[in-house]
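## retry 2 of 3
previous attempt timed out at serialization; input unchanged, resubmitting
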Amino acid sequence: MVMAGKDEELMQQVAGGDLDAFNEIIRRHQHAAWRVAYRFLGDPAGAEDVVQEAFLRILSSAPRYKPSAAFSTYLYHVVSRLCIDSARKKRPVLLGTLPEMVDSSPDPASSLARKDREALVRKAFDALPPRQRMAVILKYYEEMSYGEIALALGTTVKAVERLLGRARTALRARLSHLREK
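## retry succeeded, writing output
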């Protein structure tokens, strides 16, 4: 059964014990939550764990939920916190690529060069501090506004601007040699 209504209204129903409303929230948002967690962690299983934990936390806090922002912003806040906490607990070595990269290489040599470039970009991205990484994901992959990112990260718009500026500077410095090729 597909439920109509805004996410915020569904969360009010969840607060009243309606698990069908919660299942609808999950159906609507699980892919986006996983996508953010995966881009941050680079690990599909780890992303799945983060998303499950995020939805469990949202369910347990449903009675206290106050729709002061869009539900998606609230969800990104929970997912961001869990990802950043995960990064602080352990520092995985990730060699995978960032998702949604299209292979347009016509030959194996070009394909190998592209994979090498992607590995260097992923390594530089993973070297960013966790809050900078999450700000980059929310801005450039999820196309959130500075205000939405600030709410999701629990900070100010000015702090988001600084996080993104420092991330761009660090990535530019770490990847400057790729421009020269």
